[in-house]
Amino acid sequence: MSLHTEYPFTLPKGYVDDEGSLHRTGIMRLACARDEIEPLRDPRVKENEAYATVIVLAKVITELGDIAQVTPKVVEKLFVGDYQYLQDFYRIVNFGDASILETLEPGTPFPQEVLAVD
């Protein structure tokens, strides 16, 4: 048995970059403790604790379309529906919290390999 450490996703709407290109597919890796601890030192998090989620998502999203590096600025520019999707996806992938699926908007597509997280 092998451990899955990366999970593909497709954003419901997609990220539109500064050139107007749409990016919908990406890959999220499993988070490590450091991913959740490091943002606590960031001054933006000290001002607003909710910003920690932006930083964590920027760390664990390893691919998003053709974007070379996902940064907090990229995550900030996501449509709120895509941001919520990625938060839910993070919870499912990292904590096996499939109960979130019951609260999702009908038709929200999560890849089958994510739904089978142990």
Explain what the structure shows.
The chain is of the alpha+beta class and 118 residues long. The chain has 6 helices and 3 strands; from the N terminus they run E-E-H-H-H-E-H-H-H. It has helices at 33-37, 43-47, 51-60, 72-76, 80-95, 112-115; strands at 6-16, 22-29, 61-64. A 3-stranded antiparallel beta sheet has the order 1-2-3. A hairpin with a 5-residue loop joins strand 1 and strand 2. It is globular and about 35 Å long. The N and C termini lie close together (11 Å). It comes from Amycolatopsis vastitatis.
Name its key features:
three-stranded antiparallel beta sheet; globular; alpha+beta; Phage tail assembly protein; 118 residues
Topology (SSEs and partners):
Blueprint: E1 6-16, E2 22-29, H1 33-37, H2 43-47, H3 51-60, E3 61-64, H4 72-76, H5 80-95, H6 112-115
Antiparallel strand pairs: 1-2, 2-3
Give a quick rundown of the structure:
With 118 residues, the chain is α+β, with helices and mostly antiparallel strands. The chain has helices spanning 33-37, 43-47, 51-60, 72-76, 80-95, 112-115; strands at 6-16, 22-29, 61-64. It is built from 6 helices and 3 strands.
